[in-house]
Design brief:
By secondary structure, the protein is α/β, with parallel strands linked by helices. The protein is built from 19 helices and 24 strands.
């Protein structure tokens, strides 16, 4: 499939006489693909067993006649009200033990046998009808799937069966969970219940971690039920689902394992923070999605206007945002960007989640910018088949995401923020990062960033030791080696199983939260890089003089005692002043860095420069903050994307030339050619 722009369209929400008008406008803009039918179950099956697809036939033909391709969705996120009335047992049960209110979306139990039967019937009708239509290029399963946190009786029994398969008996569960605490020992699997009530974080962390694992696997099983059914009807069907960073995230690597492609719903902010310390770029999200299958992906929903409805409306995208954010996604490996939505809804809860066209039905500023985006992407077709390849990997772990969420380690300290800090350090100097599963093969990389390895897995630990021994560079951070795979704390000096790699031990730790302290850089190269980087620091919440003299730490402090490691930075205040905070250790033929705290943005950028220089990885020494450089390649060809991801004009010096870039402007060049 070529690099292309698409839109989400809901023909069931608009009078049929508008469809051709909309399709003509889309064609005039340059739209290549249309996604539809994700919420249209009640139109497809208005009464149980009575099916109506003629309206969808006509809608599909409208776009096919204009040479657009179609992605159809299984409508299973929103069963019709007749189904809930007739089969109330399919309604999802919340953590309070009560069925949730219907009338919204995603309010079904994925494990309900009755619901599965209803799903199978509508999917059979849908796929059987369109499997021979060459314009229907793919199916999207359901919509924005979260880990299944239904607590109905079916799901409780499903969780108990999951536990029975994992553990030989309840005595083993009691032992690995430490259930002697608070008299929590089981005498039967019938007593094993999902975490319930208002105080879930008070419950055994081993149970809550296992429940999150189960919830993710439950969703994967539901997805696999639909995928298998579709492929039984159409073996060549191309299948995906649309993911997002939700409250109850499934394990993305399991979720997409058997699907053809990763899809993501991408809504970058329209409000840029005033503080330069607050990271907002969706480059992190895009790299995370590309790394799930380590291949190009799709954006199935892309920002098109102000977002709102169940919360106050955000400001509208500023000029350049719609075009710039879409091209940013392409720069990071998106082959298709589908904008949500073509028309802003005039009814329903999403009526203020704006699309390309406003309620006025008059094409405006965003429409013209969208049309310009389509024109630009039409000119990028020589990139078809190109991909992103980087020498730096950042490890992501669903277990660590769950573990951190279940037990916050310090005020304002979050797992994804730790990852974003390191990701930003490298992307700020134009070095691309692949975000990959902690169990992925590391052999293709020069540098591996492994932050917050809270929950230990022997396979990951072994891979990191081997990677360093063979000459790779690793970066580990605070809260690593803390717990075993059952979410229990390990009784050994931290960083636990990584201590030999790090060459230092944690003598004590402290959680200062939002307190800003001084971090003295004792390594000459790191200190010089920091001072140089601060010249490009245009302000922020930390005192400028403090930034130039010392870095800043906050949130967490591992008070380190170096054993074989070199001290790169030490704390400059409080009772641990003079103690090591950041170290570097030689291990085998490689190098291992350890950051015992959470630092300011310039520190991570400076350290990234040190690490890239040591591995002879090319980087840009003078990129202004917010300017991102990304590459796609194909055979011997290389394309460079330079994106000014800020709301101000930026002076950018590249290849001995100076460019003034407008807010959210993207410049694209191939090899040594001029920007196009």
């Amino acid at each position: 499939m070529s690099i292309q722009i698409g839109v989400d369209y809901y023909p069931e929400q608009w009078p049929e006489q508008m469809w051709e008008q909309d399709a003509d406008r889309m064609k005039e803009c340059g739209v290549k693909v249309v996604r539809m039918a994700e919420f249209a179950w009640s139109r497809m099956e208005p009464e149980e067993g009575t099916y109506d697809f003629e309206w969808l036939d006509r809608a599909v033909s409208v776009f096919v006649d204009r040479r657009m391709q179609v992605v159809l969705c299984t409508p299973t996120c929103t069963p019709p009200l007749w189904a809930f009335e007739k089969y109330p047992e399919i309604i999802q049960t919340g953590p309070d033990g009560q069925r949730i209110a219907i009338g919204i979306r995603g309010h079904r139990c994925m494990n309900s046998p009755v619901y599965r039967t209803l799903c199978e019937k509508i999917i059979r009708q849908l796929v059987s009808r369109y499997r021979d239509n060459p314009a229907v290029i793919a199916y999207q399963i359901d919509n924005e799937l979260e880990a299944n946190h239904c607590r109905c009786q079916v799901c409780q029994e499903s969780f108990q069966n999951w536990m029975r398969k994992k553990y030989r008996n309840v005595q083993e569960v009691n032992a690995v969970y430490g259930n002697s605490v608070w008299s929590g020992e089981y005498s039967s699997f019938s007593q094993v219940k999902p975490p319930m009530g208002d105080f879930i974080k008070w419950q055994n962390p081993s149970l809550t971690l296992d429940y999150n694992r189960y919830a993710s696997e439950s969703t994967v099983a539901y997805l696999e039920f639909q995928r298998t059914l579709i492929h039984s009807l159409d073996p060549d069907a191309w299948i995906t689902t649309n993911s997002w960073l939700c409250e109850n995230m499934p394990d993305f690597y399991d979720l997409f394992q058997n699907l053809d492609m990763v899809s993501y719903d991408n809504y970058p902010t329209t409000v840029l923070p005033e503080s330069q310390e607050e990271l907002y770029s969706h480059a992190f999200h895009l790299d995370l999605m590309r790394g799930i299958k380590q291949q190009n992906f799709w954006i199935m929903e892309q920002l098109s206007g102000a977002v709102g409805s169940w919360m106050p409306m955000s400001p509208s995208p500023e000029p350049g945002m719609i075009k710039g954010y879409a091209l940013q996604a392409i720069a990071h490996g998106a082959d298709t960007v589908v904008h949500f939505r073509w028309r802003t809804a005039v009814a329903g809860a999403e009526m203020y989640w704006h699309g390309i066209l406003d309620h006025s039905d008059v094409p405006g500023r965003r429409y013209e910018e969208f049309r310009e985006l389509c024109r630009i992407v039409d000119g990028l077709q020589e990139m078809d088949g190109s991909y992103v390849k980087n020498s730096v990997a950042l490890l992501y772990s669903s277990d660590n995401e769950y573990g951190f969420k279940l037990q916050h380690q310090a005020e304002g300290m979050y797992y994804l923020e730790q990852l974003k800090n390191l990701h930003d350090g490298f992307t700020a100097i134009g070095v691309g990062v692949d975000i990959i599963d902690e169990s992925a093969d590391l052999s293709a990389y020069e540098i591996v960033l492994a932050p917050t390895m809270l929950i230990t897995h022997e396979e990951t630990e072994k891979a990191l030791h081997e990677f360093a021994a063979q000459g790779g560079t690793i970066l580990l951070t605070n809260r690593s080696g803390v717990k075993d795979s059952y979410n229990k704390c390990v009784m050994q000096p931290l960083p636990g199983i990584y201590r030999e790699l790090v060459g230092a031990r944690v003598r004590e730790y402290n959680a200062p939260g939002s307190y800003l302290g001084q971090l003295k850089l004792t390594d000459d190269v790191l200190r010089e890089n920091y001072k140089k980087s601060c010249r490009y620091y245009p302000g922020g919440e930390a005192d400028e003089k403090l930034l130039r003299e010392n870095a800043v730490y906050r949130q967490w402090c591992d008070i380190l005692e170096a054993e074989t490691a070199q001290v790169l930075a030490e704390y400059g205040d409080r009772y641990y002043s003079g103690s090591a905070a950041v170290t570097r250790n030689c291990y085998g033929a490689g190098t291992v860095y350890y950051i015992g705290t959470v630092c300011d943005r310039m520190f991570y950028i400076s350290l990234a420069k040190c690490m890239a220089s040591e591995k002879r990885i090319f980087y840009y020494d003078n990129l202004p903050l917010g300017v991102e450089v990304t590459y796609r390649q194909k055979d011997e060809k290389l394309w460079r994307f330079v994106f000014n991801n800020t709301n101000k004009e930026q002076k950018v010096c590249l290849d001995s030339k100076t460019y003034w870039m407008k807010p959210f402007e993207m410049k694209i060049s191939r090899e040594s050619e001029e920007f196009i």
